[in-house]
Amino acid sequence: MIEQYLGFSSDYILLGLAALVLIMIILLIVFIVQMSKLKKRYKIFMEGSTARSLEDTLIYRLEQVDELIEANASNERNIDTIFKNMQSCFQKIGLVKYDAFNEMGGKLSFSLCLLNENNSGFIINAMHSREGCYTYVKEIIDGNSIIQLAEEEEKALQQALGDN
Asked: Which InterPro entries match (predicted)?
């Protein structure tokens, strides 16, 4: 009777349903195996720990993260302060040793240039002779001097500026 309405035999329907049941049983077995593996991993994870000790461990780690965040913020503030202070420190140096007078040997005279980040600072020129040592200081602003520089002082300035 059903065969007349559908146009095919009920045997095909039963075979289709049997195949579907077989596929469902296979999927059920796969899911049971996966669940078993998951339970084993969970037991290993929780072994030796209670839920309370796990919670305490998580809280402790979160507190450590908060401390690290605070320490990082403090370090950033300190680094900013250091960089601001470094701008006014002498960072560039030029030194030229020379003989100021022909009768003296050993290059005991020198010109020393010290500059900060903005190329401002000073040049110390110490000229050594038999009678004594004469020292002069010339101010440098933005890589230039208001006072005329001697050849050795100019070389020291160029060294400090990196022009060599």
From this structure: DUF4446
